[in-house]
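seq as requested:
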Amino acid sequence: MKRWIFPGFLALLFTAVLLIGLVPWDRVLPEKEELPADAVEIGTLDTVQPLKGDYTIQYDDPDDPEGGVTVTYHVPSVGDFPMHYDSIDDVPRSTTMTFHTPEGDFVVLFGDGDSVPVPVAENTSTEWAISSPGTVNVEGDPSYCRTRKGDKTRWVIYLAGGGMSLDAYTAEQPGTFYTTGTAWNGIWNNAFFVKEESNPFADWSYLLIPCDTADCYIGAGQFIGVRGTFLNHNGYENFTAYLDSFRRTTIGVNAEPEKILLAGSSAGGFGAAMLASTVCERFPDTEVTVLVDCACLSADWQRIAREVWHAPKEITDRMTTDDCVTDALIAAAETYGDRLKILYLAVENDATLISYQNYIDRGEFVYFKDARDHYDRTLKAAVKRLREEVPDAGIWICRRSPAEVLTSPMHMLIPRFGSRIDTGSELLTNGLSWVWNTVMHDDAPPLSYGLDGFLDD
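struct tokens:
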């Protein structure tokens, strides 16, 4: 019998290794996981009880002094400490976590020689950190933003794109109409986000907020789909929580930055326009520039925002036409005057937005000629209104023919900054300079591009 023990052990070990190799460790995990209690040794726990609020954890890599990740969690207590994972990866056989709290620092050691899963983030050499101040996504799982500390008095707040849910049917279509997780797709490698000399905003503090509540960042309630799917449309609550946490950890609760660039692409562009007034209200002494990128659709926005997203009344009251973005920008400009600057980016014949427009018009999420014409009319009306009512707004239209759209569709221009794309009048490589000059210079309104002949027909 004994002679079979060792071969049997080897067989079990081989099977375990094989199964481990089949597990997709890099997948996004929707469920919550807790740190095993028997894997934790807490040193000075008694001296810092009770612990509540935001805690920064440094996961150190003993084999790489420059390695490790920094994560900020909102935790109710150390005794009930939730570990929420973006994804799983193999980490050193033991890991040290240092909790920085108002009551003092204490160290948590976990791992007893086995590989332990921890949240995966960029190496700290990239200077991006993850923060989740009690925020959740549309499915109720933890929602994470990314931050990079720089100049305390100058901020970039970027709202990512990721679609939207408009009704009970789209609520049941995650992955088609909207995203649910914090997928960034390496956006920080783009010219607008890199910490390099080529980016004039490189030394500013950055707050990147994910599009994972399907409500263009303005929801404050729950919604049920046709098959009973329960959606958390809490984008407005997440936005304010991220903003408050970023303010607290960057500059202090009662302090204000000198300048804020609030930018957003696609659904994030809708959010940037509709939250511009919120940012101006929260920072009454701050100069704010709002940069809206590819956010133009015609719909009954007040009904959608009120009945589906449960947006705050002060936001829905500004929706007076079928173009909520232009409504919000004009209202903010009228209220805050010279303290607010406006930049508007759009793509002519934007295939992605045309597909959404066709769903709004006909119930089918496909590119269709009539929807293209509808989008064209809406975009031209938006440009005309902005030129008439906000003459100091900078407008950049990327001119694209229907044939170009079908062969090389384009949507969202901020992630393409730095690319040598001919927009019809100017290369997109100049996009960053256009934004920088608008933010920093008050002596002249920003230039506009792509408007020659745009409103003629």
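The chain is about 25% helix and 20% strand.
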